[in-house]
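Late entry, written up from scratch paper. The run itself happened at the end of the previous shift, but nothing got recorded in the book at the time, so transcribing now.
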Amino acid sequence: MAFLFRCYGVEATYKMRVLLSNKFYYRRGGDCIYMMELEQLLKAKGHDVAVFSMQYPQNFPSIWSRYWPSNMSIFKVLSRPFGDSEVKRKFNALLDDFKPDVVHLNNIHTHLSPIIAEIAHSRGIRVVWTLHDSKLVCPCYACMRKGNLCVECFTRKESVIRHRCMRGGLLGSIIGYWEAKKWNKDRIQHSCDLFLTPSRFISSICINGGYDESKFLVLNNFVDLDKVDVSSFDKKDYYVYLGRLTKEKGIGTLCEVASRLPYKLVVIGGGDLERGLRDKYADSNIDFLGKKNWHEFCLILASARFMVIPSECMENNPLSVIESLALGTPVLGANIGGIPELIDNGFSGMTFESGNQVDLRNKIELMWSTSFDYVAISSSAQDRYSSDKYMKKIIEVYKNK
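Output as recorded:
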């Protein structure tokens, strides 16, 4: 186990051995980006890091991929969520060879399953789990039904079948039900030493769902300040949407409102709705740039008057909000999930009622006409979400301090 000591006035750090796990290993969404950024951060600080994921065509190369179970198939859908033999065998092999001090789980349900938490715990390895959604209490991850907060599954897991909440209709919902029954809160809590929640919202959802409050620690996501190089705070005449182009992200609502306003909206991201939105708003003041990496969209985001996150789902702690603020770009966010926790109304942005087109239009107009202190926004966010601060806290978590 890593620890610090002083010798001749010099502080030295012994390496920790950290095993990170997430179902995908490419920049698919916030969970993947967080884990991959944390991997690089830990390595930069001299710690040894291994990764346990699932084989997938879009994965980045990894020296650890030989330990990863195969991609999901139509047959594995019936076994993998419950902890199949391939996951057990390969995860045990990785533990044998890497010998981690701590296993840090992320988004692992279904494709890997919480069986890996049980395996690590049974070996006496410390297990921490960053929760990127509400899967622990909601089989379909979202705690939403028909656009509203839904907590029926907190007490009646069969509700997921009755309402057909899962992808795949009845069959998917039946699998989701049995997955939730197998990995119930008592079984999961027993195998996890600490749950990390990037927002107070997710923490409260899980606690209200019956989890032990003492097992939760709120720890916001972080920004690697080395990649946040703001050389100018000059803003141009456009605002930005950054994220997936899917229904629950509210992009359809935003485009409908934006098309009736005189301001230019730049949309960065890809997804199921991209082609339809491009066609529908081809002659409007909306520019669709497609999916971009950080280096491609950083300057665009930094130069925007503000960013909009119009989510119509229970967001946790969106990295796009933190990145925007760190660049000095204020945020207009839907008043849903953990988004309001990130926005200081009047200072770093504003909020609006999720899904309400009238309120969204009014707030876009107000954001456009408001003068913000971009330098102060950037300074405050970089201090709050500093990767160095995060590193100190996460190492304390790993060391159980």
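The longest strand covers residues 17-21.
(Scratch paper discarded after transcription.)
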